[in-house]
């Protein structure tokens, strides 16, 4: 494996751990990850890894993104081991072949603490959403992200972290006991959609098993139905899916549930169309006045209503949309 390593991290223990994970690593020193990552290397070139540091890991989330309180995207890694066809990383990042690990975790801790200072009068928790630029749990044994950040968040009274994932790599989490400030949020889709649109990701049943194991071990678990896709026969597929998961998952033990349709900004939509010309669900989207391409209102309303029917409204939040215009 070709590994690009920023020169100032050559003695960094976390960097050494990542390198040790790969067979026959060839390590090339670099000044700054952007010099390699931003070169816009084409889609099919050889996979490689970059180990780097990042100055600013936090960005404020837009309104209605998730929990109804202040929140920040927490960036610690770029690119994903999975290959969902609709994934925004495919055009949002300049390079899709390089897995980037930012290893200056202590700096990230300081940024989180500093950010919390600004909200110290808030009576509500501040949320930090990790895994929006990668799937942290899928690469956790390499990055040791959870082992470092889960205990850290327990020390911050007013902070909460979401680790959003499709991975079932949870056994190493079980050594952490009484965790109340981190929620493991599983993205779920009907198996047919996983097969056709979420390549390389674990099966639905494996995700359900991971969910139930974590619940049994008193973890806070969330469910994310994002994005809901208007595939052929979507009403039948999602109704069967809801019937199935209702039998397998006790929703009363779930901490939070978010859902939302497929959506892209006008600019992003045109970029993904260039890369995924045969992705059928893209052609179902309509230009909305709110600056997004989305599934049409009737489809979204059908999705929101059917999820309310099966799951109830109590824990359900609609992400970046409203139930009615
Ligand atoms: S799991 Fe998430 S981040 Fe990874 S490819 Fe799929 S949508 Fe993208």
In short:
The protein is of the alpha/beta class. It has eleven helices and 18 strands.
Key structural traits:
single chain, 325 residues, alpha/beta, pyruvate-formate lyase- activating enzyme, 8-stranded mixed sheet, 5-stranded mixed sheet, 11 helices, 24% strand, globular, binds iron/sulfur cluster
Describe this structure in words.
The chain is α/β, with parallel strands linked by helices. It has a single domain (2-318), classed as Alpha-Beta Horseshoe (pyruvate-formate lyase- activating enzyme), CATH 3.80.30. The protein has helices spanning 13-21, 34-37, 89-92, 105-118, 140-143, 145-154, 191-197, 204-216, 234-248, 266-275, 297-311; strands spanning 2-6, 26-30, 48-52, 58-60, 71-74, 77-78, 83-84, 98-102, 126-130, 159-165, 182-187, 198-199, 220-228, 256-261, 263-265, 286-287, 292-294, 316-318. The strands form four sheets. An eight-stranded mixed β-sheet has the order 4-5-9-10-11-13-14-18. Strands 2-1-3-8-6 form a five-stranded mixed β-sheet. β1 (2-6), α1 and β2 (26-30) form a beta-alpha-beta unit. The longest helix is centred in the C-terminal third of the chain and has 15 residues, at 234-248. The radius of gyration is 20 Å and the shape is globular. The chain binds iron/sulfur cluster.
- Derived from helix and strand composition plus strand pairing, the structural class reads alpha/beta
What sequence of helices (H) and strands (E) makes up the elements? Answer: EHEHEEEEEHEHEHHEEHEHEHEEHEEHE
DSSP helix count? 11
Characterize the biggest β-sheet.
8 strands, mixed
Oligomeric form of this entry? single chain
Radius of gyration, taken over Cα atoms and rounded to an integer in Å: 20 Å
Q: From the 3D coordinates, which CATH architecture would you assign?
A: Alpha-Beta Horseshoe
CATH fold type: pyruvate-formate lyase- activating enzyme
Strand order of the largest sheet: 4-5-9-10-11-13-14-18
The count of domains is: 1
Number of extended strands:
18
């Amino acid at each position: 494996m070709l590994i690009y390593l920023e020169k100032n991290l050559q003695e960094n223990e976390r960097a050494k751990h990542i390198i040790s994970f790969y067979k026959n690593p060839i390590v090339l020193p670099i000044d700054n990850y952007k010099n390699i990552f931003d070169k816009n290397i084409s889609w099919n070139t050889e996979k490689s890894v970059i180990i780097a540091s990042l100055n600013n890991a936090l960005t404020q989330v837009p309104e209605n993104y998730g929990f109804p309180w202040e929140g920040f995207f927490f960036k610690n890694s770029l690119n994903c081991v999975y290959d969902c066809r609709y994934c925004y990383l495919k055009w949002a990042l300049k390079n899709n072949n390089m897995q980037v690990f930012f290893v200056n975790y202590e700096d990230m801790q300081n940024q989180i603490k500093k950010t919390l200072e600004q909200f110290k009068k808030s009576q509500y928790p501040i949320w930090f959403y990790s895994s929006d630029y990668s799937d942290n749990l899928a690469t956790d044994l390499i990055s040791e992200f959870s082992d470092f950040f889960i205990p850290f968040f327990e020390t911050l009274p007013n902070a909460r972290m979401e680790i959003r994932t499709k991975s079932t790599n949870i056994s190493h989490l079980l050594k952490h006991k009484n965790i109340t400030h981190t929620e493991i949020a599983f993205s779920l889709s009907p198996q047919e959609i996983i097969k056709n649109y979420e390549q390389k990701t674990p099966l639905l049943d494996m995700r359900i098993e991971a969910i139930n194991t974590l619940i049994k071990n008193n973890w806070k678990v969330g469910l994310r139905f994002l994005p809901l896709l208007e595939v052929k026969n979507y009403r039948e597929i999602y109704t069967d899916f809801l019937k199935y998961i209702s039998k397998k998952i006790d929703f009363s033990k779930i901490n939070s549930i978010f859902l939302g349709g497929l959506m892209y900004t006008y600019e992003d939509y045109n970029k993904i169309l260039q890369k995924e010309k045969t992705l059928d669900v893209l052609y179902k989207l309509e230009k909305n006045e709110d600056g997004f391409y989305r599934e049409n209102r009737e489809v979204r309303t059908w999705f929101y209503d059917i999820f309310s029917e099966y799951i109830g409204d109590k824990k359900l939040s609609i992400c970046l949309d409203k139930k009615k215009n």
